[in-house]
Amino acid sequence: MQPLCISAFTATCAAGAGRVALLQALRTGRSGLRPNDFGREPLTTWVGRVPGVEDAPLPAEFSSYDCRNNRLAWLGLARDGFLDAVAAARARHGHERVALVLGTSTACIGATEEAYARLTPAGEFPEDLRTRRVHAPHATAEFLQHALGVDNVAVTVATACSSSAKAFAQGARLLELGIADAVIVGGADSLCGSVLFGFHSLALVSSDPCRPFDARRNGINIGEAAAFALLEREGDGPRFLGYGECSDAHHMSAPHPSGRGARTALEDALARGRTAAHDIDYINLHGTASLKNDEIEAQTVSALFPASTHASSTKGWTGHTLGAAGALEAVLTLLTLESGFMPGNLNSQTLDPACGPQVRLAGREGRARRALSNSFGFGGSNCVLLFAAVGTT
User: Fold this and answer.
1) What is the CATH number of the domain that holds 209?
2) How far apart are CA 245 and CA 265, in angstroms?
3) In the annotation, is 320 catalytic?
């Protein structure tokens, strides 16, 4: 793979809106998790809820797309000059040469839940939600394509927790094949009852703040986020060096017991990026704080990387943002490369014995030149992204 330029990147989640706020949260250990107050009968857990989504309707020209997930996506785009960067890419390449790949696991299902909760006496959706624009799996990508004024390919990727990491991989292929000259990649997933109670039914949700890789971890916290990056062949930004994808298809919700899929994705990302394991300074781990996922990921990392590699999960700040997790954690990884600060595992106190020396409790300052971001989803859908700091050869 030819290295690609990340011309712009941004994210909004419970830990902060935009890169400055997110980096400050990482440095100070300020979590975005809070006791769950989402829904009519809130589940007893903690969530990573983005403040202000309910109070930020879409601009009037996009009102037909208005729903919580699209509002969150729009809030995410409106930071760090990202909209200006997209406009500049349109000017450079033409609107027909800019593509969009969006990862999401739930799309706008929250709007459908709301519509059923507000059925009319005749059993119909309320008039404000009687539109396919907020009930289709492609709804948010369709909205973003219209709002951003781009007319190349627009794709929705829905592979559970790896969705928006795979958006980066698909964006790279669109550039490699010459289908587009710039690609907006990212993810958006908002809180909804289906996800909260669905994960609860699998006994995966913790009633406490999540503790990734902790010996006493007992489950995940659900979060929400919108995160985006602009990929081009040339430019001055950090580099996207490679990706690894696979599906181990071992189990609907559990990883392969030997970590086969995770290892394959890690090795393929390194090979595609022509990078050795000892050259990786930081790994943003998938680290959901579920029992088996953390154990197997820790063992896989321990088997492949030297003790000097600093590895951590950032879900103690953000919660697990589902289909947006890959893009959010790609942005957090890029912030690590940009700032020289490598975070630890927030909320965790005693590491699981399965962890090797790579998994760190505490954050630390230190120049990171190359970094990986792991995303391992349900069904064994795995994706690993490889990035390099500006000026790294």
Assistant:
1) 3.40.47.10
2) 5
3) yes
